[in-house]
């Protein structure tokens, strides 16, 4: 082969390589950055865009105004751990690895997601994304395979476990695999740096770093607000302290709650709203807002508002709260903004759930989900206002087994059926006409009950740690 031909072939390889690199960069540019903001125990009715009239949430409401609201979006579970596992893996509670909070297993040993699970972060890594999580992870109680850096995240700052996430002045958090000390923090005295501030700063630092890359990024921003304990720096309560609100006195125990519950709860929600605004402002400052999808939601229903003496109406028109499979326990606020893609001021009644987010981001990123057994369906058509192209679920399934369990629930269309397993009791509601689920119509519709009960039995696989059997409360002290 002549020298001329060798040089020609080499030049061709260089040209192909350059074209490939350019194509990859152009492909990355067409993929949006994705920021998923999830609060902890925030009720459906705790935000202005869902009717809240006591707590101010101007930045979250503006996000909703500039994008879309989903009015039928459900969490993965009525408590934190399994809800986040469902979100991350695209599998509902009948198939998910984690089906309950840490101590509510048959053996009492926590179950985490493991190497067999394919997470949102792992899927987006395949699509060229840089990935980060800031805040509450809660899926690595055993500090083993479930750790974020083992599950597709390039960067992690926050809590691997649940109990440390109960306090707002923690003395230690994880940065990637290292447990670091927060200088000056004294948890028991509620002194030092407020963790919500640190989460916001870490999120902004991650965005600044990633904005300089040619590849898109995914940021999972998991605030612990407004989960108990209820506490916030005193000066941030000023906005509500002059309100003529009754005092709901909070007690301090494991949760080092501030005394004035109503004022503290409202101040915490408004405080995190302001900090979400800081994140949104940074996107504008860096000129990346137009190419960033921002999603806002909560991990399950509220815990604070009393059902027999509601003050904030945190569950909206729904019944129940955290740990219930009624609407108040699992229907969560959802808003998303993506300039030039999502129609501002729009809304969707599409019935969706946490397990749909994984296939949705795969759809956005242009990859197919690796695990073909996921339960989720992409809701990208609904985000983009194309209802005709939106595939609907045949049904959605949940199960829960804490003090009120075991209970299974299935929604098909407007019908919701509950099976209280230990009591062999069935409840049936039509949420289109009875959103508060106050009228059990099981006796009037025996055929519908039979049909939906059959689906319940098909909806789950057995899990040795999460059988549908009655279990004692692991947190209750034995006499």
UniProtKB/TrEMBL annotation:
InterPro entries: Alkaline_phosphatase_core_sf (IPR017850), Sulfatase (IPR050738), Sulfatase_CS (IPR024607), Sulfatase_N (IPR000917)
UniProt keyword Transmembrane helix, yes or no: no
Taxonomy, superkingdom: Bacteria
Entry keywords, A to Z: Calcium, Hydrolase, Metal-binding
Keyword Transferase appears in the UniProt entry: no
Domain Sulfatase N-terminal span(s) in chain numbering: 32-367
Listed SUPFAM superfamilies: Alkaline phosphatase-like
Pfam families per the UniProt record, alphabetical: Sulfatase
Family statement drawn from the similarity comment of this UniProt entry: Belongs to the sulfatase family.
Protein name according to UniProt: Arylsulfatase
Organism, scientific name: Carboxylicivirga marina
């Amino acid at each position: 082969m002549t020298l001329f031909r060798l040089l020609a072939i080499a030049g061709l390889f260089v040209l192909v390589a350059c074209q490939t690199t350019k194509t990859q960069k152009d492909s990355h540019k067409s993929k949006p950055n994705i920021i998923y903001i999830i609060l902890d125990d925030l009720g459906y009715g705790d935000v202005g865009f869902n009717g809240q009239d006591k707590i101010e949430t101007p930045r979250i409401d503006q996000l909703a105004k500039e994008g879309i609201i989903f009015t039928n979006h459900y969490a993965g579970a009525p408590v934190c751990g399994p809800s986040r596992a469902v979100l991350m893996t695209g599998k509902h509670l009948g198939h998910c690895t984690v089906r309950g909070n840490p101590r509510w297993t048959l053996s009492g040993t926590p179950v985490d997601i493991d190497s067999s699970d394919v997470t949102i972060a792992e899927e987006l890594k395949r699509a060229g994304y840089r990935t980060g999580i800031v805040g509450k992870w809660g899926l690595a109680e055993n500090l083993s395979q479930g750790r974020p850096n083992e599950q597709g995240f390039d960067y992690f700052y926050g809590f691997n476990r649940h109990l440390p996430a109960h306090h707002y002045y923690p003395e230690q958090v994880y940065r990637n695999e290292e447990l670091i000390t927060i200088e000056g923090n004294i948890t028991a005295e509620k002194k030092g740096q407020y963790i919500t501030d640190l989460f916001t700063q870490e999120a902004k630092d991650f965005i600044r770093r990633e904005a300089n890359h040619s590849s898109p990024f995914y940021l999972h921003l998991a605030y612990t607000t407004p989960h108990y304990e209820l506490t916030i720096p005193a000066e941030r309560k000023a906005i509500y302290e002059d309100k003529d609100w009754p005092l709901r006195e909070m007690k301090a125990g494991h949760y080092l709650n501030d005394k004035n519950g109503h004022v503290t709860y409202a101040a915490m929600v408004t405080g995190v709203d302001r900090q979400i605004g800081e994140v949104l402002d940074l996107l504008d400052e860096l000129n990346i807002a137009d190419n960033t999808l921002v999603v806002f939601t909560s991990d399950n229903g509220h815990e604070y508002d009393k059902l027999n003496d509601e003050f904030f109406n945190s569950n909206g028109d729904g019944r129940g709260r955290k740990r219930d499979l009624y609407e108040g326990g699992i229907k969560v606020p959802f808003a998303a903004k993506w300039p030039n893609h999502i129609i501002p001021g729009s809304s969707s009644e599409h019935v969706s759930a946490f397990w749909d987010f994984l296939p949705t981001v795969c759809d956005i990123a242009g990859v197919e989900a690796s695990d073909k057994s996921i339960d989720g369906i992409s809701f990208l058509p609904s985000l983009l206002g194309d209802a005709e192209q939106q595939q609907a679920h045949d049904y959605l399934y949940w199960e829960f087994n804490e003090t009120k369990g075991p209970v299974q629930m299935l929604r098909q269309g407007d019908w919701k059926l509950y099976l209280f397993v230990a009591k062999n009791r069935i409840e049936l509601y039509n949420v289109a006409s009875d959103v508060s689920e106050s009228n059990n119509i099981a006796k009037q519709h025996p055929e519908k009950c039979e049909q939906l009960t059959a689906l319940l039995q098909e909806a789950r696989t057995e899990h040795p740690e999460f059988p549908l059997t009655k279990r004692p409360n692991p947190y209750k002290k034995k006499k």
